[in-house]
Amino acid sequence: MDQRGGAAAPPREEVAARRAIGTLLEKLGAEDWDEGVVDLLLGVACSEAGSLLSVASRLRSNSGRSGPGITAADLRVAVEMQQGPPPSAPEARRLRDQCNAQPLPE
């Protein structure tokens, strides 16, 4: 809350992040969206980033390396670990068929 009793304005970093998400949605062809979409995407992005940074930090500390904090290489390894191996071709087909069998919303 601000001193006048209203809600405080969001930090400019959050405003910039929301603007970036809106730009991404536009580039993906969305013409209009509920503000909740931006909230959810921002939350997911922050959660995923926090998770990856946590893994990268543990990897770095377990490696015994010194120097500056987390590096891009640490983060790349964390991303690769989170993604895991791709499914086999038969499994990918099964998952695709299962997804395609779901009825579309009305």
Walk me through this protein's architecture.
InterPro entries: Histone-fold (IPR009072). It comes from Polarella glacialis. Residues 82-106 are annotated as: Disordered. GO terms for molecular function: protein heterodimerization activity. Helices cover 65% and strands 0% of the residues. 4% of the residues are buried. The longest helix has 29 residues, at 35-63. The chain contains 4 helices and no strands. The model has no long low-confidence stretch (mean pLDDT 84). It has a domain at 52-101. With 106 residues, the protein is mainly α.
Q: Can you lay out the helices and strands and say which pair or pack?
A:
Elements: H1 12-27, H2 35-63, H3 72-83, H4 89-100
Number of helices: 4
How far apart the termini lie comes to 41 Å
Low-confidence stretches at least 5 residues in length (pLDDT < 50)? Answer: none
The fraction of residues in strands falls at: under 5%
- The ordered H/E elements are HHHH
Structural class: mainly alpha
Helix content: 55-70%
Question: Over all CA atoms, what is the radius of gyration?
Answer: 20 Å
Overall, the morphology is flat
Biggest sheet architecture: none
What's the pLDDT, averaged over the residues?
A: 84
